[in-house]
Amino acid sequence: MNETVPAAKILRSAERAEAPAIAIAGLSKTYKTGFEALKSVDLTIRSGEIFALLGPNGAGKTTLINIVCGLVNASAGTVQVDGYDIIRDFRAARSRIGLVPQELVIDGFETVWATVSFSRGLFGKRRDDALVERVLKELSLWDKKDSKVNTLSGGMKRRVMIAKALAHEPQVLFLDEPTAGVDVELRRDMWAMVRRMRDRGVTIILTTHYIEEAEEMADRVGVIRKGEIILVEDKTALMKNLGKNRLSVELVTPIDAVPEALAAHGLEIADGGRRLVYVYDTAAERTGITTLLSDIGKAGLRFRDIETSQSTLEDIFVGLVRDPQ
After folding, report:
1. Among 15, 91, 173, 182, which one is most buried in terms of CB atoms within 10 A?
2. Is 20 exposed, middle or buried (0-12, 13-18, 19+ CB in 10 A)?
3. Would you say 313 and 244 are in contact if contact means Cβ atoms under 8 Å apart?
4. In terms of DSSP bridges, do strands 220-225 and 228-234 run parallel, antiparallel, or are they unpaired?
5. Per-residue pLDDT tens digits for 141-200
6. What's the gap between Cα 131 and its chain centre?
7. Count of CB atoms within 10 A of residue 202's CB?
8. CATH for 1-96+173-183+202-242?
9. Rounded mean pLDDT of 205-214?
10. With b meaning 16 or more CB within 10 Å and e meaning fewer, what string describes 241-272?
């Protein structure tokens, strides 16, 4: 006998199938001290993307992550993970999340194998030695599988924490400063692993102080400042819209001030008066470079070299989070 499935249940299943990886609405957090860590945050993270959440220390990045992962209670707002509410459907939502926190919180007296296997069991997953083996090999931990965690280097412990987070096959992975204190080789290996996971459809949210990593890895970038999301944009579009190009003109003879005849160009003096720096927008119909160089000659200045450079994501980030004067 076939049971009739309630229409409401079918609708909820369809909504989850089309749901973003994470949907945050009106999320706020005020601590007992009165400190407002998050201020009505709205954020949607797409399934299968690498999303970089950037912000200065104390901006609210870790608080936001901890609320989504169920470690901190929000003061207001809602969070859904893969269509599941983190309060109403806590177990379903949390089972879809893997978290690698900043701190090295790990049982040092167990072996690597036991630590990772136990983490899988915590989420009610059946034992799967083949999966644990694959995770350890991908993180270059296979030869350490029988080693006690407390005998490993800091970088290797960080790898073990990532392995723990992956053991239950999460659909969403949070990496909170995952390469802090890790050497260059380990950092490179970790990002190769992140790319492989994204290729398998895992959504990855990372925070990092190495902004060049976000520039290389992220599909989209969000910037948080004083508990508020001030920008979310595709990385390429962000760098195109907010990035600026710089023209640096090396002078034959240093100057003390920009000649009045060049004041309209908004030039800056650099390198002890040996360079004039001109900022321009490549997307504009006219860059003004031809006129500038002509005016420099008319002002009686001679130059020996010209260089151009483009803003990095770090330049844009610093400009966004700088406190207004």
Report:
1. 173
2. middle
3. no
4. antiparallel
5. 999 999 999 899 888 888 899 899 999 999 999 998 877 666 777 778 778 888 888 998
6. 27
7. 21
8. 3.40.50.300
9. 80
10. ebbebbbbbebeeebeebeeebeebebebeee
Which amino acid does the sequence have at 225? R
Query: pLDDT for 260-305, tens place per residue?
Result: 889 888 888 988 888 888 877 655 566 788 888 888 888 889 888 8
DSSP 6-68: PHHHHHHHHHHHT--SEEEEEEEEE-TTS-EEEEEEEEEE-TT-EEEEE--TTSSHHHHHHHH
Residue 325 above 50 pLDDT? no
Report d(CA 87, CA 62) in Å as an integer: 19
Structure tokens at 254: 């240093």
Task: Please tell me the distance from the alpha carbon of residue 112 to that of residue 106, in angstroms, as a whole number.
Answer: 10
**Domains of the chain by residue range:** 1-96+173-183+202-242, 244-321
